[in-house]
Amino acid sequence: MGAIDLADIVFYILAIITLASAILALEAKEIVYGALALALSLLGVAGFFILLDATFLAMFQITVYVGAIAVLIIFTVMLVRREKWVEKEGVNRVAGIFVTLLVALGMGLVVLQSNIGQRVASKEAASFTQIGVQILSLYWPVIIILSLVLSAAVIGAIALAKLDRG
Amino acid sequence: MGYDIFLVIMTAGFGLLAAVPMLILPKLLAPKSKNLAKEAPYECGNIPSGSGRISFMMQYYSYLLMFVVFDVMAMFLFAWGVSYLATGLIGTIIISIFILVMLIPMAFTLFHAGRRELW
Amino acid sequence: MTQIRSFSDFLIRVIKIVAVLAIIGGIFVVATSFLQIMFGMSELPLPISPSDLITNPSALISLLTGLMDTDFFRISVFPGFTFVALYGAIAGLWERKLLAKMQMRVGPLYAGKVEGVLQPIADVLKLLFKELITPKGADRFLFGLVPVLTVVISTAAIAVIPVSEHWVIAQSDFGVLVIFAVLGFFPITVLITAWSSNSKFPFIGGLRALHQMVAYEIPLILSTLVAVMYSGSLNLINIVNAQSTYWFILFAPVSAIVFFICGLAEMERSPYDLPEAESELASGWLAEYSGMNFGLILGIAVYIKVYIFSALFTIFFLGGWLGPNFLPPEFWFILKTAIVTTMILLPRGVLPRSKIDVLLRQGWARFLLLAIVNIFIAIVLIQAGVIVPGAV
User: Fold this and answer.
1) Which CATH number fits domain A6-88: 3.40.50.2300, 3.50.50.60, 1.20.120.1200, 3.30.70.260?
2) Per-domain residue ranges for chain C?
3) Which of B82, B109, B115 is opposite residue A128, by nearest beta carbon?
4) Which of B14, B16, B67, B77 to mutate to probe the C interface, most C CBs <10 Å?
């Protein structure tokens, strides 16, 4: 075990923040707190992207997830009427969280045992220009399919959300 | 590595350090008096009635959905814009198809947001 | 706390403020300078002995220059927080004077000997003495969190804005994306405000503010894409340097207009100040905030946003700090930013407010299409060889 450097400390702090807020997102009594905790865990994931030298992805994550999707979730959750909540009976929360963490630990150990730590990434991080070139030259079907999927998502969501009187 | 992002967070931290004393100081200095009328929610002089969180017009919900989708599109447009010279004509055509396909749900959304009776 | 009954009461209170500020400031300065030196961010030519200072006073100059080069100085003084706060205070005073002259009034006149110059300080002192009221039934934690969060997010965006090539806090290769990531936090802030004050006016006002901000954020992002295309880089310093022959506003006037108008909408200024509508919604989403809560959001954070948008407009379209060489580049930057700020402050005295449905429809339909149209103009100009991205 080598010396623990600053990157390790940041990694552990980010991991704790992300996991804790993700658990809080499910367990919070007040549902808006849960939605805000979800936004915090998404910020933690963005922090991981920064640690991995993918600053573009981190900014993408913050702009899209925290700036748009979290807003949508909080907005929707905010307008739910309180009388319609149902609390499930007979659920043991602590045991549930414990089993979840155990499963996550098991999966993590399996991944770590597969020699994934031996691979060394290329020394340079890809610059944003290279990412753009790759997206548009080699991965161009992805862009076309992405536009179709996004359009379908919007049209479907509106068609489901509006009342059936038209 | 992420030194520039670290500096951004440090600047935000400095903002925090500057803002917190400004909230602590009034707690020390200002007169405090509990008054039922002062703490009730403000309704221009009426006695407040009804819950504080009422339902809003939902017709603008489609705009929020559009925002998510167009945010993703804007990010991909940036990926194209920075590497414009390197991708040339093919890249421009692909991105144009992207934008044109996106205009269809935009028209759909604007049409449905205007029709208030549907929401 | 008793009421103020005489001048000596007032004096004692002011002395208390100054003492508390001095103690906090002192602890802060000592702590951060220790942290600085510990993390090796400063290379100060210390130690200097007093006899050295007397015989060789130029050592003091090198110490001061070394101090000015540290990151801490940049974050706290220039071009960081103190500079922006001063700019905001001056902009606030300038706005009130400007509006007053437009409405044939005088504006603030009595604070300070000359034309009310000390008015911002008087305002801050007054707000510090007001009670912070939390309405009953409001969510105390979130209610208190929002003003601090607004100021923190506004300050974070300053970090990548360069005043000149040397004076920038964080020189990021992704400067443009960092700014938009930080700006994306504001809708969440407004939403939390709307929800946490358990009251009807802030709720409606907050949702209106949310829809307005969300509608105008996409045209804002797309209008800066043109400047990024022309310079071929996301680094704000490279964008300014690419304008050394001609400013980008000549080649992208439509984008500049779209950026300006969407900036007005993001800052919730006239004609888009519907969420803060003073006469309609009783100051909208801020209705339940009193005293320094109000001062933080409506005073400091708004003017920090004004600075950010003015600075971004000069960087993207007006050539940043480039100007004739007989004056330092920082001066040109501040001059151009001040002109843009004046143009931002003016519509408040002139234009009426837009209605919410007109506003949203215009933002989504008209401005988005205008921004996309200018992207196609930019494509044509680059293909025609008028501008070569990446050439300085």
Assistant:
1) 1.20.120.1200
2) 132-383
3) B82
4) B14
Going by pLDDT thresholds of 50, 70 and 90, the confidence category of residue A70 is: very high
- Band the pLDDT of B118: cuts 50, 70, 90: low
CB contact under 8 A, C1 and B74: no
Please compute the mean of the pLDDT values over residues A42-59 and round it to a whole number. 89
Domain ranges across chain A: 6-88, 126-166
Nearest to C174 among A36, A55, A71 (CB): A55
Q: Which is nearest to C154 in space by CA: C333, C303, C273, C340? A: C303
Q: Which residue has the higher pLDDT, A126 or B6?
A: B6
Question: Quick one: residue B64, left, alpha or beta (phi over 0 = left, psi -120 to 50 = alpha)?
Answer: alpha
B-chain residue closest to C149, CA distance: B16
CATH of residue B62: 1.20.58.1610
Question: What residues contact C265, with CB distance under 8 A and at least 6 apart?
Answer: C212, C213, C215, C216, C272, C359, C363
Nearest one of C188, C216, B7 to A39, comparing CA atoms? C188
Cβ atoms of residues C315 and C235 within 8 Å: no
Tell if the CB–CB gap between A60 and B75 is shorter than 8 Å.
yes
Reported as a single tens digit per residue, the pLDDT across B24-81 is 777 777 667 666 666 555 555 554 544 545 555 677 778 888 898 899 999 988 888 8
Residues of A in contact with C181 (CB under 8 A): 58-59, 62-63, 67
Q: Note the pLDDT of residue C34.
A: 59
> What local confidence, expressed as pLDDT, does residue B47 receive?
47
Contact yes or no for C123/C295 (Cβ under 8 A): yes
Domain of B86 in residue numbering reads as 3-118
C249-253, long-range: CB within 8 Å, 24+ apart, which pairs? Answer: C249/C317, C249/C318, C251/C378, C251/C381, C251/C386, C251/C387, C252/C226, C252/C227, C252/C317, C252/C374, C252/C377, C252/C378
Averaged pLDDT, A79-99: 70
Low-confidence stretches of chain C (pLDDT beneath 50): 1, 279, 392
Q: Is B77 in the A-facing interface, judged by CB distances under 8 Å?
A: no
Q: What domain count does chain B have?
A: 1
